[in-house]
Known about the structure:
Layout: H1 6-12, E1 30-35, H2 39-48, E2 55-57, E3 68-72, H3 77-86, E4 90-95, H4 125-138, E5 143-150, E6 156-162, E7 170-175, H5 183-197, H6 201-207, E8 211-215, H7 220-228, H8 280-292, E9 297-307, E10 309-312, H9 324-340, E11 347-350, H10 351-354, H11 362-369, E12 374-383, H12 398-417
Parallel strand pairs: 7-8, 7-9, 9-12, 10-11
Antiparallel strand pairs: 1-3, 1-4, 2-3, 5-6, 6-8, 10-12
Helix pairs in contact: 5-12, 9-12
Amino acid sequence: MKGLSITFVLAILGLASVSLALKARYDNYHVYQLQPKTAEQLELVKQLDGSRDSYIFLDAVHYVNSKIHVVVAPHRVPDFVKALENYSIAYELMETNVQAHLEDDIVANPNRRSDDYSWTEYHELEDTYNWLHSLEQKYPGVVSIFKAGRTYEGRDILGVKITYGPGKKGIFLEGGMHAREWIGPATTTYILNQLLSSTDKEVRMIAESFDWYIVPHANPDGFVYTHTTDRLWRKTRTSYENGCFGADPNRNWDFHWNEIGASDNPCSDTYAGPSAFSEIETKTLAEYIATELKGKIFLFVSFHSYSQLLLFPYGHTNELPPNYNDLKRVFDVAIDAAAERYGTKYTGGNIYDAIYPAAGASLDWAYGTQGVKYAYCYELRPSSLNFWTGFKLPASQIIPTGEETMDSLMAMIKEAGITHFL
């Protein structure tokens, strides 16, 4: 074998922890695209993932020949490149100054009036929560706020229930599980607003035929942290050993937890946590669904980014779920509808094959333990061919993303058999 041992490589790539007291900047940080082609190369990349504050992995590290984008601190670039070359890992320099891409976030003033809430800009948590509360006043008897859980730092996980009458099947929408994926909560609130305000006859029929349970921010602590401290933060904010914080909340659900596609390293962005439901966010949200909504949910939809994929169970195995034919039939209609308005092309399928192995996701838990017949995850704009705007989708794309996702969701619900519930 050519080059250094993995242990030595990690040693020379060492870095003292950076203080989190100031807002993180990424001046002259580089982005590399890696493609490990052997098991040995993949193992090195896995060990680099979460080994230092100098590296931020924008993609999961799971399998040979996958393309993995990594943000690297400028003072670590020479050693990082040397390690790749020592192991003959194919790489390409994609960007030399990450900060230049973080300067154009359009973020609304959180102190604005709640009725000024719009989808031409991204919102801070408090701004969205104020808007949610205002909906109770604007739509009495139709909208009610519920607490779907709580966070490590003491925040509420707020949800909105929309109901136009008793005895209806439920649809659960979840956004914001991964903190840096801002388009997820924006799309979730866009759909929420459409369900209440749209005058389109088809939207009105579907809106009023179900009880809707909508949680725009499943990871409030992490989301706040992306505004105050680090725009690229992904996880929760639980304090762990060695100065590491947070677990990946979408690897922490108690369904085949940590079997595959997650890390045991607390500093990794895909850290599964020390146990299933170790994160109070996932534990309390699951408790709400399992107790308050038991037997009520017909469809569970999670919004993430990016890649323009529509996913369904399972993440822990390539074995297809029992009602695969129904899931695939609905999937086909939904991705066709997503393309009708703007030509946006979605692909996808079962998680394991369509994106990568990933056990412990919320949609698998809903499907596998709660008897939810239809469970999906949208990986929203942009496509994987446009990785850099993945977590930095311009605010000008919030409304188009919301529109095409709403089109897709309506088609999904109709194909899944809405007439059965009318």
